[in-house]
Amino acid sequence: MAKARLMDQPADYAKLGIDPTKVQKWEDGRRDTDTPGTSEVWYFDAILDDGSKVVLYFHPKSPYKLQEKGDFPDIGIHITDPDGKTYGQQIIEYPADEASFSKEQCDVKVGPHSVVGDFKDYEIHIDPVAEVAADLHFHALVKPFRQGNSAVIALGDNDEYHYTDLSVVKNQVTGTLTYNGEKHEVTGLGYHDHQWLNISPIVAWHHWLWGHLYTENYTVLIYDFVAAAQFDFTPVPFFGVMDNKTGEVIFQTDGHYTLETELEVQPAIKKGFPKKSAYTFTNADGTSVKFNTEWEQELEVRDMYWKAPDQVKAQYDQMGIQPGYMRYFANGTLSFEKDGETVTESGEMIYEYNYGGKEDPRAHV
After folding, report:
1. What are the CA-CA distances from residue 34 to residues 57, 72, 98, 163, 307 (Å)?
2. Full-model pTM
3. Looking at residue 40, what is its pLDDT?
4. Are 355 and 326 contacting, i.e. CB atoms less than 8 angstroms apart?
5. d(CA 46, CA 202)
6. 114 vs 117, 135, 160, 261, CA distance in Å?
7. How many domains are contained in the chain?
8. Any idea where the AttH domain is (predicted)?
9. Would the pLDDT of 188 be above 70?
10. Residue 245, exposed/middle/buried by CB under 10 A (0-12, 13-18, 19+)?
11. Number of helices and strands (H, E) in the chain?
12. What angle do CA 44, 277, 45 make, to 5 degrees?
């Protein structure tokens, strides 16, 4: 059975060319190539004090052209105003000769749009396009998070595939958003991650839960990957806790955890999704953290299987998958022992549950 594992051994660090003791600027530069099957994204989102929200991203290769050789750059910007009305466009493509992606640091230019950053500060510029624009500054409030000190998962008998997530989980956001014909001064909190991969998510993973929680004193990232059947349903969890005062990562899982869930069938997708998830992460050194989440509201439902055209559904059946996607508004709670006392903090969060596989008792849902 092909395997999935976190690249967290000395030989892995040497192969990747990284220092496991510190994150370097080049790690947020371009990490992949333009070969068919590769994908890379610099992603940013923010929840703003005026009630608006924004999602922005930069791709060297359009999601629609991943199997082609060469770069097909695009950007996306999606703004939700305080009343819930949306603006922007998901995929805006530009010629390859109008784009550049530095390998030295995050320095990305796609047409007239750009993002430059160094894990501490990021300047994002979206020129007027699709009747919106943005000039935002992200200032990191916590250190970068690399699960296993690499942020890289290897899949396959010979590590032939990779899947990643390198993040700056909490940032102070300032700047301007332009939509509905007006420029708005904004402040708030935001998230950044950088992913690069050479395997389709629906091939690699049976499901994942991804989200982040901000409490008064701590910041939490969870990205609970469970591999597809061909990779033996192997769980590869990303989980980290950062101290808001120092910005330091004070806990990251070594991969050992238990999970208890209460499932609720989603009517459109026709599968049981966790209504409640209770994680206990316990490392080999005895340190332990509990993280619970319970969703209160469905924000997005993507039925990608039952509503698919017959030809597409037949392809999914041949692959043995039944893709569906949920995004939730939820409550999250963090709990751990510190100096002989139990620390418990809670907050609101938004998380996604991407459920590509068929229901299977081996899959740890």
Report:
1. 18, 9, 15, 16, 32
2. 0.93
3. 96
4. yes
5. 26
6. 10, 10, 32, 41
7. 2
8. 78-196
9. yes
10. exposed
11. 3, 24
12. 10
